[in-house]
Amino acid sequence: MSRDRGTARQPIDQGYGLVCDLDGRPHPDLILSDAHQEHGVVTARVGSGAPLPELATGARVRILPNHACATGAQHSSYNAVRSGSNVVVAEWPRFSGWRPL
User: Fold this and answer.
1) 63 - beta bridge partners?
2) Taking Cα atoms as reference points, which of 39, 33, 3 lies closest to residue 18?
C-alpha cells in the first residue's frame, strides 16, 4: 500500500483503497482509512450506514489501492487472475525505466 491519499480532494474519498472480498467484489462503503508500515485500518466510509462485514482476525481481503506504485515497484512480475478465481492465468513482467517506441 502507499501513503498517497490521491482521492482526498475528490467528491468521494476512497481512503487508501477499497476493501473487497477475495474475489475482488467491494464491500459496500468499506475503505482502508489509515495505513501504517505493518497494518492498515479498515472502516466504513464517514457518513455511511453500511454494516461492517463479519471479518474474523486473520481473515483475508483484497484491497483495490488508489495508488500502488511503491508496492508494484517491489516485484519483478505480476500474477494475473480472472475475476472469481485464484488460478494464475498469466505472469506479466515488469519493466524499469522508459522503453523506446
Assistant:
1) 19
2) 33
| Cell 450506514 belongs to residue | 49
Contact 28, 21 (CB under 8 A): no
Give the cell for residue 1: 500500500
The two most distant CA atoms of the chain are separated, in Å, by: 50
Instruction: Kindly tell me if the per-residue pLDDT of 78 is higher than 80.
Output: yes
Rounded to whole angstroms, the Cα distance separating 16 from 66 reads: 6
pTM, two decimals, is: 0.69
**Identity at 99, one-letter amino acid code:** R
